[in-house]
Design brief:
Elements: E1 5-9, H1 13-24, E2 28-33, H2 49-52, E3 54-57, E4 60-65, H3 71-76, E5 80-84, E6 98-101, E7 118-122, E8 134-136, E9 147-148, E10 171-173, E11 180-182, E12 189-190, E13 195-199, E14 202-205, E15 210-215, E16 227-232, H4 245-263
Parallel strand pairs: 1-2, 1-6, 2-5, 4-5, 6-7, 7-8
Antiparallel strand pairs: 3-4, 8-9, 10-16, 11-13, 12-15, 13-14, 15-16
Helix pairs in contact: 1-4
Amino acid sequence: MRIPKALVRGGGDIATGTIHRLVKSGFKVLVTEIETPTVIRLNVAAANAIYEGDFVVEGVTYAKIERSDEVDATQEAGKIPVLIDPQMSILKTYQPDLVVDAVLAKRNLGTTVDMAPVVIALGPGFEAGFDCDAVIETARGHDLGRIFYHGKASDDTGIPGDILGYAEERILRSTGVGKVVLNKRIGDHVEAHDLIGTTGGVPFYSNISGVIRGLIHEDVSVKMGMKIGDVDPRDDYNACNAISDKARALGGSVLEAYLQTIGGLRI
């Protein structure tokens, strides 16, 4: 039996839920990323391989590769290759059965429906039947994970998900422009008003008490007001190292949409 191949554009924590699902379902997966990923939940993101070289998330090893001709050998070694290739130039030689745009940029950065036999996009910015074969709803709520074979997902609200009554309060944002220096790390417990670090030399603090679930990598040069971290008020250390319920749900929807589309069965 021929093993299906997938290319996933983006290796953030939400994308990693899809990647994990595809890997566990038997796909050979390739991940493309930008040179300095701005992902926050680094402990559960395939993109962290860009910084770490090899990186493991829930038993799956991601490996940074430098060239497109390293894909096959990396996959044969049981690792998921992660390649810096924001424009997906590798599609000139690599022919996947499935392309998933999981960048979550809220706009289409160049994904087209003809990139593979099945093309699926996560979140707003895409129209199913035009940009891609299917769009997956990413907004929390009743329709999370809903598959659109025609039309679009809901517009981005700009409001973070609510955890124990905290939404915007749990988000850490840059207070300056430029280099990030961190005093804390993912998994650390913090109290409200604790110093987390500096951005462009300007200190930033936690707004609430909890565990730091995500922090941007110090290699990223940040803009003013940019999201750079996340404090979880549940104070659950395990949440720092596990794929989220949302990411898992979206991964299941991607797999369903692929099977429905490739089999021509739209129930």
